[in-house]
Write a structure and sequence with these properties.
heterodimer, A: mainly alpha, two-stranded antiparallel ribbon, 2 strands, B: mainly alpha, about 0% strand
């Protein structure tokens, strides 16, 4: 056996003694230390889709975190931009362009949040910039909302007693965003079929309006997968709970941690739509 | 502040941080753009300080594996005496111990860096461990370099007329100071 292999074995042994893994990730013991380094985006994409638990182990390695951030961000942005392009096409083809009302005005006078106006040609949404504003608002807004909510996620983590650095929080949050973006790409074809049905059968404007509303809400549906990813990633960190805790205490803390992550996700679900809407409306009013 | 002023302030901070990391030597346009636009996500990595001392081990492992292969090639030469074979085995064992020591030291230092608020992670012992860790890494690197030099020397020694005794003496002299880096566990135990 080469010395390097012997060293790997020692590393595996040391890590598993220090950080006992939960039974559900036991099958990953073989590659616990030398898990595939997601050095390129396709590999990271594959890990997000097929081996999320391995990725959870991998992103705990601090030496990989800095390199992972731009890649995860790129996947998330790519997914949101693809979604935006799809929505832009839908808006153009549907012949109804959304016009956003200021939130303050909605609260004061009870105006509709989004007003749909008839447009001329399918390219109008691109010519007048509606589609580009939508793409920018979603791509930037969803990530910016994560940035705003990050400190609270860090605080929640510390509150539950897990060992956590701000870097861990950033990587976990972006991993959940990338997962949500991938899920969004996955459900886009279904939405495409829905849109096509509405256009081909020339359904009533009210139905098209509902289809567009559904489209605006799709990133938040994709966000459910992201939340699930964040939840499982954070629960994996429960093995860093203080060793002095008894088994019962550890279980209680883990449950508390899970609830805090859910609570954070609820906060994010409120902030993200407001952020997206505000950016979109501000860009529109310029 | 209205939306435009807020956006301007945000971008100005992002620009400042981008110039900062560009000054540190990272010139990848994509990363610089991402930092400028999404600087809050990169901030923990920017203010976290240098990672070089903590993440040296993987590089050492790669060099170590290459040096180990070079040593194996030396020991597999037909005109090598048993004393050298034994020395090669001893060096490899010493290197393994040093690598284990480095990995453990890195783990402890990493924890110190992550949780500086912990009282036990402060004080002169942590600094001493850091210094000794760097010395051990340096010693290991020097060993690796010496093995490379040795491989070159052996190539030269293959010239016509070279005799076996001279080669063995040279190898023994060259291999003598290898594998002397720190593996003292006392420093680690003190920090645990």
């Amino acid at each position: 056996m080469s010395t390097l292999n012997a060293l790997k074995e020692t590393l595996n042994r040391t890590r598993s003694e220090k950080n006992p893994v939960s039974p559900e990730v036991i099958e990953l013991q073989d590659d616990e230390v030398f898990v595939p380094n997601p050095s390129n985006i396709p590999m990271l994409f594959e890990l997000l889709l097929k081996r999320p638990r391995t990725l959870d182990r991998s992103i705990r390695d601090e030496s990989r975190q800095a390199a992972l951030i731009p890649k995860l961000l790129l996947i998330a942005m790519g997914g949101f931009v693809m979604y935006g392009v799809m929505m832009g096409l839908t808006i153009g083809v549907s012949g109804w362009t959304p016009r956003l009302t200021r939130l303050a005005s909605v609260l004061e006078s009870g105006n509709a949040l989004i007003e749909f106006r008839p447009s001329g040609s399918p390219l109008d949404a691109w010519r007048d910039g509606t589609a580009f504003r939508l793409i920018l608002a979603y791509a930037v807004g969803l990530v910016a909302a994560t940035g705003i909510c990050l400190p609270s996620l860090y605080f929640y983590g510390l509150l539950s007693g897990i060992r956590l650095s701000m870097r861990d929080v950033v990587v976990h949050a972006l991993k959940s965003k990338a997962t949500a973006a991938i899920a969004l790409i996955g459900i886009l074809p279904i939405y495409f079929v829905l849109c096509l049905t509405a256009m081909v059968f020339r359904l009533a404007p009210e139905v098209i309006e509902i289809v567009q509303w559904l489209g605006f809400a799709f990133p938040f549906l994709g966000g459910v997968w992201g939340t699930r990813s964040l939840y499982s990633g954070f629960l994996g960190l429960a093995d860093t709970l203080p060793e002095r805790l008894e088994e019962k205490g550890r279980i209680q803390r883990s449950i508390f941690l899970g609830r805090l992550v859910v609570a954070w996700s609820v906060c994010y679900s409120v902030i993200a739509p407001i952020m997206v809407f505000t950016i979109w409306e501000r860009l529109q009013s310029r | 502040m209205d939306f435009q002023q807020t956006a301007l302030m945000y971008l100005l901070i992002g620009l400042g941080l981008t110039v900062g990391i560009a000054g540190k030597g990272r010139r990848n346009a994509g990363i610089l753009l991402a930092t400028c636009l999404f600087w809050p996500l990169f901030l923990p990595f920017l203010v976290g300080g240098s990672e070089s001392s903590v993440h040296e081990t993987p590089d050492i492992l790669v060099e170590f594996a290459e040096a180990e292969r070079a040593l194996d090639r030396i020991s597999s030469m037909t005109n090598i005496g048993p004393a050298i074979q034994e020395r090669v085995v001893a060096i490899k064992a010493a290197w393994l111990q040093q690598c284990e020591w480095l990995v453990e030291a890195d783990r402890i230092l990493n924890e110190n860096r992550q949780f500086p608020q912990d009282e036990s992670n402060r004080g002169p012992a942590a600094n001493e461990l850091r210094i000794r860790r760097d010395q051990t890494a340096q010693a290991l690197r020097s060993d690796v370099l010496r093995v490379y030099e040795l491989a070159v020397a052996i190539q030269l020694w293959k010239a016509p007329g070279a005799n076996r005794e001279d080669l063995n003496s040279l190898l023994l002299a060259q291999l003598a100071p290898l594998g002397m880096g720190t593996t003292d566990s006392a420093g680690l135990a003190e920090r645990r």
